Amino acid sequence: MILAVDVGNTNITFGVYKEEKLVSTFRITTKTPRTSDEYGFVIADLLKNNQIDKEEISGTIISSVVPNVMHALENAIKKYLDSELLIVGPGIKTGIKLGSDNPREVGADRIVDVVAAYEKYGGPALVIDFGTATTYDFVSQDGEFSSGVTAPGLRTAAKALWQDAAKLPEIEIKKPKNVLGRDTISSMQSGLVFGQIGQTNYIISKIKEETKLTELKVIATGGLGRMISNETDSIDIYDYALTLDGLRILYEKNTKRK
Asked: How is the chain split into domains, by residue range?
């Protein structure tokens, strides 16, 4: 079995694969400081609770956008799982061409998403990841990833509202019944959710206009991606496991496992 680990700004998501089948997923918060032993105990317990013997994990691949957790997390994997470890970074075989001006600045999570989208759905494609940031990444028909868009994510925008505006409360992020809110909470939900839908539609439209690819495949992922995908015809596919699938694909490309 393969353990895929996606370290994001908010959560660390784990996926366990038996060959190409995703058999289990679980997540922990990123911002809680942990030692390697704490990571090890948490991962071992989560595997056990999901009826997975940690001895069955033969390989682990990690993609991270949070450098300060990596030392402890890597040591935990080595000590408690004793599995082959691969880190997504410079030098890894991806099967795509990085055509950006500064390839080393491209986030590992974006590379993983593009690899998964290109392998699963082909190109040209636009990958939208609704996470801490909302990212739009374009991959061409021949597998070149050279351009994209980065915008604040829904939770990031919501947090800015209730932290920086003294009288605005912390709210649940969900689509209200109407655009015009009748109270503070519904008006905030409206601005956040319908604002994200509007942004998504507009950016997709502009990308299709600039690339002259009116039939461009648009694939969405990320925690809040399903809610946005359900509200727009601009998104063709919602793939909740896109990032984890990308990690599995990269592991296979860089090891003898096929």
From this structure: 2-87, 122-240
Tracing tokens 């991270």 back to the chain, one arrives at 64
CATH superfamily, domain 2-87, is: ATPase, nucleotide binding domain (3.30.420.40)
Annotate 187-222 with three-state secondary structure: HHHHHHHHHHHHHHHHHHHHHHHHHCCCCCEEEEEC
The CATH classification number of 122-240 equals 3.30.420.40
**Terminal CA-to-CA distance of the chain, rounded, Å?**
12
Residues 13-68 pLDDT 10s: 999 999 999 999 999 999 888 999 999 999 999 999 999 999 999 999 999 999 99
Of 68, 15, 10, nearest to 247 (Cα)?
15
How far is the C-alpha of 58 from the C-alpha of 51, rounded, in Å? 16
Please, which pLDDT band fits residue 103 given cuts at 50, 70 and 90? low
Shared fold status for 2-87 and 122-240 = yes
Annotated catalytic residue 109: yes
> Which pLDDT value is given to residue 122?
94
Given a cut of 70, whether residue 142 has pLDDT beyond it is yes
Q: Which of 6, 101, 109, 236 is catalytic?
A: 109
